[in-house]
Design goal:
Two copies of one chain form a homodimer. Chain A has 268 residues and is of the alpha/beta class. In chain A, 42% of the residues lie in helices and 17% in strands. The first copy, chain A, contains eleven helices and eight strands. In chain A, strands 3-4-2-5-1-6-7-8 form an eight-stranded mixed sheet, sandwiched between helices. In chain A, strand 6, helix 6 and strand 7 form a beta-alpha-beta unit. In chain A, helix 1 crosses helix 10 and helix 6 packs antiparallel against helix 11. The termini of chain A are far apart. At the A-B interface, helix 5 and helix 6 of A face helix 5 and helix 6 of B. Bound molecules: adenosine-5'-diphosphate (2 copies), iron/sulfur cluster and magnesium ion (2 copies). One adenosine-5'-diphosphate (ADP) binds next to helix 1 and helix 8 of chain A. One adenosine-5'-diphosphate (ADP) binds next to helix 1 and helix 8 of chain B.
Chain lengths: 268, 268
């Protein structure tokens, strides 16, 4: 069983990448569980064709955990991919990561963390509380950082690298950095920049995903690109990513950058 | 004493806007305290001409709160603006909002929350724990949402509106939504869209700040636009914002949007 997590700044393309990765893995015959760990709870939307997903936190709060059955929160979408959304509390109320904690407790208790591949899609703007949990408890052993060339997203990726390094040094988790995925914003020399960043933090660029209109078109139809435009170049990029993820054994403990080094990298 | 908070998605331009607003207020003869409430702790960088700022959380952790003097953490920058950075814990460790909690306790205890205007610059990607504190404890009575026309930043602004509405309904805080500040990304019909969003959440567009190269140029020189290009149009925009903020009495309890309404607004 492979457990991977995609972390990155909000809006950078984690859910789009996760859903297409899961769809490609599903089409290749693997059993996949995608766990949305973002209070936005829209990670699995395109796999579920826009069908509103109940969140674990909402149901646990309404009924109490013992009264939440697995079928209430785990649904099956495109290509047989099983989907679950952690959810989050109302803004301003308690810890935004609480949905993730509730979700892991529930899935563990129901023996639901079983699949050929589990894909955790996790908010990376703050790496604390519940948001650190997919890495900390040894759920996700392989973390992929999703970033563009923008300093803001590299800053977030570098922070996630700090969290991984810290957890690894404490020795209590097997979590490692598996690579950096560029999800392009279309900047000049973006691939060179993100590749340089990946190397600088002791990792490597696993994929360079173009910014492509097919993503928006598929989204309008509430589908992944894999489903909507299976013969497109973009679909092929996601399939290649799935293949690369399956055979990737280049895992490392990251060496996060200082702010100065990060900035000079971004500005040269 | 006016206490205002600028909230918004990470990278949207809160610190740029806050620092220029503070500089304009300082130049107009007001005493200003800018409190950086983002783990990035770079809110006051341009006011401090790039001088590295110690963070309250770092010093409190190193020495213990009783051994942290006000002069250790509050520095005076451009136009006499007093600057302080809350900081945040190492990624992966504890609550990202802890720096803010430590900062408020310290500033309160030292009687430092005194100025004609206090400007809180607060991360808005998650509105929980320490990040909700500037609103909750009645520090900031007027909240400005900083957003572009991108759905991601409107989503974050809408979440902050939810937090304000919730705190207001509990009656224990005087916190109100004071307006929406568009910090342009340069999208088509961006001002119309963000204006429509502001109206929809029972507020109004307070300023439309152009995306402008002077911001980058000033940044390279470690200055605010107010200092670097005082005769530019952009500097004038920030001065007008300062004037508008001082006389703004159009405060409201926001009416946050459902996801569907938000999306149809963003996509029409
Ligand atoms: N490769 C891409 N090309 C074009 N648009 C993209 C691409 N990846 C993501 N997007 C768009 O960016 C937005 C944010 O993506 P999303 O996956 O929801 O981000 P996150 O999950 O990191 O918050 C979505 O509207 C999506 O359509
Ligand atoms: N009006 C603007 N025009 C051009 N660039 C801007 C403008 N506002 C902000 N920026 C740039 O956007 C980046 C993020 O702004 P910042 O104020 O640090 O965001 P935040 O504090 O919300 O994280 C900065 O590099 C800044 O130079
Ligand atoms: S641990 Fe993180 S998510 Fe939870 S309250 Fe603190 S900042 Fe918010
Ligand atoms: Mg997402
Ligand atoms: Mg900032």
């Amino acid at each position: 069983m492979k457990q991977i997590a995609l972390y990155g700044k909000g809006g950078i393309g984690k859910s789009t990448t996760s859903a297409n990765l899961s769809a490609a893995l599903g089409e290749s015959g693997r059993s996949v569980l995608q766990v949305g760990c973002d209070p936005k709870h829209d990670s699995t939307r395109m796999l579920m064709h826009g069908e509103p997903m109940p969140t674990v936190l909402d149901l646990v709060r309404e009924r109490g955990a013992p009264n939440v059955a697995l079928e209430d929160v785990v649904r099956t979408g495109y290509a047989g991919v099983r989907c679950v959304e952690a959810g989050g509390p109302e803004p301003g109320i308690g810890c935004a990561g609480r949905g993730i904690i509730a979700t892991f407790q529930l899935l563990e208790a129901r023996g639901a963390l079983e699949a050929d591949v589990i894909v955790y899609d996790v908010l990376g703007d703050v790496v604390c509380g519940g948001f650190a949990m997919p890495m900390r408890e040894g759920y996700a052993e392989e973390v992929y950082l999703v970033s563009s060339g923008e300093l803001m997203s590299l800053y977030a990726a570098n922070n996630i690298a700090k969290a991984i390094a810290r957890l690894a040094e404490r020795g209590r988790c097997r979590c490692r950095l598996a690579g950096v995925i560029l999800n392009a914003k279309g900047m000049e020399r973006e691939e060179g920049l993100v590749g340089a960043f990946a190397a600088a933090i002791n990792s490597h660029l696993v994929a360079a995903i173009p910014r492509d209109r097919s993503v928006q078109l598929a989204e309008l139809h509430r589908q992944t690109v894999i489903e909507y435009a299976p013969d497109s170049d973009q679909a092929e990029v996601y399939r290649r990513l799935a293949a690369d993820v399956l055979r990737n054994d280049d895992l490392s403990i990251p060496r996060p950058l200082s702010q100065d080094v990060l900035e000079s990298l971004a500005f040269e």
